[in-house]
Amino acid sequence: MPHTLAQSALQTAVNTLDTAASEAAEAATATTDAAHVTAQTSAQTIVETKNLSLWYNDFQALYDVNMQIKEHEITALIGPSGCGKSTYLKTLNRMNDLVLGCKIAGSVLIGGHNIYADSIDVTELRTRVGMVFQKPNPFPMSLYDNIAYGPRLHGTKKRSELDEIVETALRQAAIWDEVKDDLKKSALGLSGGQQQRLCIARALAVKPEILLMDEPTSALDPISTAKIEELALELKEHYSIVIVTHNMQQAKRISDATAFFLLGKLIECNNTEKLFSDPSDSRTFDYITGRFG
């Protein structure tokens, strides 16, 4: 009997330990899950468009676009040609202001402020929201002067300060080691991929918060494309990036969120993995599976 009592006591102790261990494991899992959810939802909204519509004279190019863009993420804009994705991109730094007959309704908020308000300094806005275009467009001047152009325009004159800005921007654009001995040479002598990274460095030199990229790799070879994609992934630690792309595989590779546009309307915007694996709209499914586009 004493032996039986001892066994019973031992079994009770073991059960107690098992229960405690199980509860601890569940608590740890819950903590991990909570941390994961927090990490997923902690990104702050840096850009928000509300009921955004746009016309070129009588042609309506955007219809009531409501969308949020998160800080320190890459947001990809996809859709067939003429769907409004590049038009939408250019509303974020008012590049459409340069188009004759363009008019806009609704609002674009950056940091909570409507960038179409009368009080907005458009030059200052385009410093905060840099842009890289589809075709590399280096200025016909030296590599150094390409990067120093923006800072000089904004009042930086000291050579030592400009030297630091130029080197920092070229390093951020992952091209410093390739060009550091050729800074006095013409930027037009670079390869297409190098020119595009130079243009990215030029945009970064004025310290923007947001970087807009309008099909930045469409004119590049696969190796240069891979370098730009790798660079974008590195840059999102410091900048919020919005990229227009016709390449759905590129959107899947590098973006955190993806927005699908069709005929000027935002059909769906979601986490990239969710949008491509389980789209909520049949039109999105038809596009990403190649039924049109």
UniProtKB/TrEMBL annotation:
List this protein's GO terms for biological process: phosphate ion transmembrane transport
GO (cellular component) term, any one? membrane
Q: State the CDD domains in the record.
A: ABC_PstB_phosphate_transporter
Which residue intervals define the domain ABC transporter in the entry?
A: 47-288
Q: Annotated Gene Ontology MF terms?
A: ATP binding; ATP hydrolysis activity; phosphate transmembrane transporter activity
PANTHER family assigned: ABC TRANSPORTER I FAMILY MEMBER 17
Name of the protein in question: Phosphate import ATP-binding protein PstB
From what organism does this protein derive?
Answer: Atopobium minutum 10063974
